[in-house]
């Protein structure tokens, strides 16, 4: 739960009066142009930045206490280049002293369509799509209640994007984590988000259920975002 959060910046606030709710099994898609404050929001939820006003909590505790997981934008940069993917993936498990249930790694690999032998390679020895899915695996392995995705599909080609979006969606149904997905792709946001939040210059311009937003965005800014996504072919809205 993010309530009335303000994060100060040098010249203007990086976030201003931002409130939103994240709940188990649901996806909030955060859309906004470069500099809107999307990564700042993620850093604040992770506890890496302290808001100057407002509160961020999860079931009454500070969010960082539940160890939310992060999937970063650049898949290979998420991994230590000299370690096997397996070592990096198991790092949160080892660090938290978690004992994995029998077959969990294998099940997640299957769900992500990631052959397990790929995990014994280094990040430079796998395709970008495999590195991306390994990053998602690392986020999922310790079963966090909340996963933050910062532009998770931006390094992938269009076909792999669709496929990976579907895999994340299916895994969420099984694992039940709450997801916050930052994206500039409104079509993806509407297809896989339960709610859409549009950030503009550090403020929430609009927050709405995804199907409502796609048909009837309220502000001129959100209408222009929606119309641009339709023109690009990323969003289809039934007439
Ligand atoms: N480490 C930082 N210190 C101060 N200001 C920053 C820092 N990182 C980003 N900003 C500023 O905060 C605002 C939001 O940036 P950011 O959250 O990175 O946007 P987005 O992820 O939506 O592109 C921008 O004005 C940016 O210049
Ligand atoms: Mg960013």
Query: Radius of gyration, rounded?
Result: 18 Å
The tally of beta strands, per DSSP, is: 10
CATH architecture of the largest domain: 3-Layer(aba) Sandwich
Strand content bin: 15-25%
| Relative helix content | 25-40%
Task: Give me the secondary-structure topology.
Layout: E1 2-7, E2 15-20, E3 27-31, H1 38-46, E4 53-58, E5 61-62, E6 69-71, H2 85-95, H3 104-111, H4 128-140, E7 146-150, H5 158-175, E8 178-183, H6 186-192, E9 195-200, E10 203-209, H7 210-215, H8 220-232
Parallel strand pairs: 3-8, 3-9, 6-7, 7-8
Antiparallel strand pairs: 1-2, 1-4, 4-5, 9-10
Helix pairs in contact: 2-4
Magnesium ion (MG) binds next to helix 1.
Describe this structure in words.
This protein is of the alpha/beta class. It folds into two domains: 1-68 and 146-239, 3-Layer(aba) Sandwich (Rossmann fold), CATH 3.40.50.300; 78-143, no CATH class. The chain is 36% helix and 22% strand. The protein is built from eight helices and ten strands. It has helices spanning 38-46, 85-95, 104-111, 128-140, 158-175, 186-192, 210-215, 220-232; strands at residues 2-7, 15-20, 27-31, 53-58, 61-62, 69-71, 146-150, 178-183, 195-200, 203-209. Helix 5 links the parallel strand 7 and strand 8. Helix 2 runs parallel beside helix 4 (128-140). Bound molecules: adenosine-5'-diphosphate and magnesium ion (MG). Residues 9-10, 14, 32, 34-40 line the site of adenosine-5'-diphosphate.
